[in-house]
């Protein structure tokens, strides 16, 4: 009963944050949309509804893995007698490192990129883009997280806290709001911010292969995938991909079919074909 109430509280918190983000977008938008938004919003929110339904089983697997690890003391953290504050710190950082590695894999493996590209094909970027993930991506990511949670020994409480934190950070990062420069720079030294994540959604493929962080930015600094913030650029960012930009491609059935439609190539092959030169590494995650 308590777990159910906790889940409902988390869902209500995310929904409330989404409504707040939407209101802020209307009051203080960072940029104006280039075209009609109705089909985009309908497609993005529909994907979220479908993904939310499909991910029930993988989510249960992830929490069951955390519970099994906690009860059987099977995980890595269980073998180390650390004080709770260290266990929590390592657990949260481990989940964020996993999210970073998983994100890089989505960009470096062809079949995973086809699925993940649904998120990147949004020609605009706002709060609804946060939920624009193909159900297959949600399922694969959740299963991967479940396996790693079991091996690392992350507790159910840590999984719940990190999941809520990551959703909140990503929702803000996708939101089309004008963030004060000093606040952006201050928060951006540690956390993923809108200006940081906008680079990741750039139509320029060299920037798409950067800024993979989910909550914290230091993984990108550590592994050479940081490309700065949107405010550091001389010209505005154009979002999306070179294909799937028309209004019809934003409808739910087209988004669901997008991974099997033509005009797909991996970010790496596009980058090599364009001869783009970068000073940072985009090598596959090992």
Indicate the topology.
Elements: H1 2-27, H2 38-54, H3 56-72, H4 84-108, H5 110-120, H6 135-152, H7 156-174, H8 181-187, H9 194-200, H10 205-208, H11 218-222, H12 252-257, H13 267-274
Helix pairs in contact: 1-7, 2-6, 3-6, 4-5, 4-6, 4-7
List keywords for this structure.
disordered N terminus; disordered C terminus; 59% helix; 13 helices; 286 residues
Poorly predicted residue ranges: 1-7, 273-286
Helical element count?
Answer: 13
Largest sheet: none
Shape: globular
How many separate structural domains?
A: 1
- Please identify the structural class as seen in this structure: mainly alpha
Q: Total strand count, please? A: 0
What's the end-to-end separation, in Å? 41 Å
In round numbers, the mean pLDDT is: 80
Q: What value does the Rg take, in angstroms?
A: 19 Å
Tell me what the structure shows:
The protein contains 13 helices and no strands. It has 286 residues and is mainly α. The chain has one domain.
Give me a quick take on this structure.
With 286 residues, this protein is mostly helical.
């Amino acid at each position: 009963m308590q777990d159910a109430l906790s889940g409902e509280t988390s869902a209500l918190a995310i929904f409330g944050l989404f409504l707040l983000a939407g209101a802020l977008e209307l009051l203080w938008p960072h940029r104006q949309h280039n075209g009609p938004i109705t089909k985009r919003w309908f497609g993005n929110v529909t994907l979220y509804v479908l993904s939310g339904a499909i991910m029930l089983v993988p989510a249960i697997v992830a929490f069951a893995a955390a519970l099994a690890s906690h009860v059987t003391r099977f995980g890595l953290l269980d073998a180390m007698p650390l004080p709770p504050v260290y266990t929590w710190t390592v657990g949260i950082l481990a989940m964020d490192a996993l999210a970073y590695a998983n994100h890089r894999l989505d960009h470096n493996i062809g079949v995973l990129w086809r699925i993940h590209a649904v998120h990147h094909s949004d020609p605009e970027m706002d709060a609804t883009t946060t939920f624009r993930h193909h159900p297959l991506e949600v399922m694969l990511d959740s299963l991967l997280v479940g396996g790693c949670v079991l091996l690392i020994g992350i507790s159910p409480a840590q999984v719940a806290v990190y999941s809520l934190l990551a959703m909140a950070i990503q929702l803000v990062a996708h939101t089309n709001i004008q963030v004060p420069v000093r606040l952006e720079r201050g928060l951006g030294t540690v956390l993923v911010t809108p200006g940081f994540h906008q680079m990741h959604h750039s139509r320029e493929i060299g920037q798409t292969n950067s800024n993979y962080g989910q909550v914290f930015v230091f993984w990108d600094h550590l592994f050479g995938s940081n490309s700065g913030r949107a405010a550091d650029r001389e010209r505005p960012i154009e979002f999306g991909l070179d294909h799937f930009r028309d209004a019809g491609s934003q409808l739910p059935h087209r988004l669901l079919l997008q991974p099997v439609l033509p005009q797909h190539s991996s970010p790496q092959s596009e980058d090599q074909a364009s001869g783009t030169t970068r000073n940072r590494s985009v090598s596959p995650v090992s």
